[in-house]
Write a structure and sequence with these properties.
The structure is a homodimer. Chain A is mainly α. The first copy, chain A, is built from nine helices and no strands. The relative contact order of chain A is 0.09. At the A-B interface, α5, α7, α8 and α9 of A face α5, α7, α8 and α9 of B. Chain A binds a DNA duplex through α1 and α2.
Chain lengths: 215, 215
DNA sequence: TCACGTTCGTTATATGCTCTAACTCCATCG
DNA sequence: CGATGGAGTTAGAGCATATAACGAACGTGA
C-alpha cells in the first residue's frame, strides 16, 4: 500500500520481520491455541535461533498483545466496512459470524477465556469501543420508534458511562448489549465445540436469535 | 459420608492424596487460570518432590480432565438438587449463575475456550447430557401450551439425536438451546471481564434475558 | 572511502516446567 | 516373618521463557 514511507531500511526490515513473526504466530494459534504459542518454535521456523526474537518482542505477552490488537483491528475494520456498505444490524451480525468462523482461535483470543492477571493495553479497549460504536449506530438505526423502556434500559440510562459520548437512547444500548451477548453465546459455544455432539446446525440457532431480536 | 468402604488403607491414602492435589489445583486455577496449572508447584506445596505426583495422575492432562469431571459433576448435582427442590426454569437459571460466580475459573474450565486437540472423555459428555436433561425437563414444564413452531424448532425436530431419549417436544429443545446460549453469553462475557469497563450491573442483563424468555 | 556506532543474530546460561528411569524404603499381606 | 508392590526419592532428558555477553553486518557521516 504505502510504498515509500520515510522510514529507514532497517525500520522496514524490522517491521517486516515482526509481520512474519505474527503470521507464524497466527498459524500456531490456529492449530494449537494461544496457550501453546511458542516464541522458540516460531524462531526455528524462521531459521533463527530462539533469543533472536526478543529483539522484536520484549516477551511472549507482548507478542500476544500485538495479536490481540491485530484481531481487534481486523474486526473493527470488517464491521466498519460492512456498515459503510450500508449493512444493517442483521447484516453486521452475520458479518461478525463470518469473521468469527473464518478463524475461530482469533475470535476466542479476543472474546474467549482471558489469562488472569493479563491487563489489556489502553488502545485495545479503544478499538473495542470502536466496535461497540459501529454496532451501536446500527442498533439506534434499527430500533423501532416508540420502543418501550425496560428495566434494563432504565438501568442503562443511569449507567451509561461506557457510551457517554454516543447519542444512542438507552433502549438502543439495551438492544446492543442483548444482541452482543446473544450472538457471543451462540458463537462461543459453537467455536468451543460444545455443539459438535448434537448434530444440529448452529447457523439455524444464530438466525433464530437474529429474527427474535430484529422482527 | 460412607465412612467404612471395603477399601484398603493404601487405597484410602491414595484417594486422600488425590483429593488434596485437586484441592490445590483448584486454588491455582482460581488465581492463575487453567493454563498456568503446574504439577511441580502443587507437589512443592504439599511437601513432596515433583515426580511424586505422577503416581497419582498419569500426566497434567489427566489432572485437568479430573478437574473438568469434578466441575461437571458439581454443576449437575447443584442443578439436580435445585430441581428436586421444585425450582422452575428461572430458578435453575439463577442457580447456574450463582454456581458460575462462585468460582469463575471453574465455569470457564468447562465452558470456556478449549485446548485444541483436547478430547473430552466419554463420561464427561455423559454428565453434560445429564445437565442438559435437567434443564430440558424444566424447559418442557415451562413451555406455554400451544407454543408455535419456529424454524429452529422444526430444524431441531429433524436433528434431535442429542435428545433422542428425552420426550420433550421440539419447541422445548429450542427453548433449551436458546436459554443455554443466552445465559452463557451473559455469563461468559461477565466472567471474562468484558463488562468491567462499562459500569452497569450484569445481573440486570441476566434478569432481562430471563424475563424476555420466560414471560 | 572508511571508521564508527547502532542493530541484529549468535551462543551460553539460569530457571522452570513435564515426564521417564532407576533406586530406596516401608507398609501390607500371605 | 519374609516377599511383594506401592510410595517417594534423585538424576536427567527435553523444551520452554528470558537474560547476558559476544561477534558480525549494516548504514551513516566525516
Amino acid at each position: 500500500m504505502a510504498k515509500s514511507d520515510p522510514t529507514t531500511p532497517r525500520e522496514r526490515y524490522r517491521t517486516q520481520v515482526r509481520a512474519e513473526v505474527m503470521e507464524r504466530a497466527w498459524e500456531q494459534i490456529a492449530t494449537a491455541g494461544a496457550s501453546a504459542l511458542s516464541l522458540n518454535a516460531i524462531a526455528k521456523q524462521m531459521g533463527m535461533s530462539g533469543p533472536a526474537l526478543y529483539r522484536y518482542f520484549a516477551n511472549r505477552d507482548e507478542l500476544i498483545t500485538e495479536l490481540v490488537r491485530e484481531a481487534y483491528r481486523s474486526l473493527a475494520d470488517t464491521l466498519a466496512a460492512a456498515a459503510a456498505d450500508g449493512a444493517g444490524l442483521a447484516a453486521l451480525a452475520r458479518t461478525l459470524r463470518t469473521w468469527a468462523l473464518a478463524d475461530p482461535q482469533r475470535y476466542l483470543l479476543v472474546y474467549g477465556t482471558p489469562i488472569p492477571g493479563y491487563r489489556a493495553p489502553e488502545d485495545t479497549t479503544a478499538i473495542s469501543r470502536e466496535i461497540a460504536g459501529t454496532l451501536l449506530d446500527a442498533c439506534a438505526a434499527a430500533l423501532p420508534p416508540n420502543t418501550p423502556a425496560t428495566p434494563l434500559s432504565t438501568h442503562l440510562a443511569a449507567h451509561r458511562t461506557w457510551a457517554a459520548t454516543h447519542p444512542a437512547p438507552p433502549e438502543a444500548l439495551a438492544l446492543f448489549l442483548t444482541l452482543w451477548t446473544r450472538l457471543h453465546g451462540v458463537l462461543s459455544l459453537e467455536l468451543a465445540g460444545h455443539f459438535t455432539g448434537m448434530r444440529f446446525a448452529p447457523e439455524t440457532l444464530f438466525e433464530a436469535e437474529l429474527t427474535a431480536l430484529l422482527p
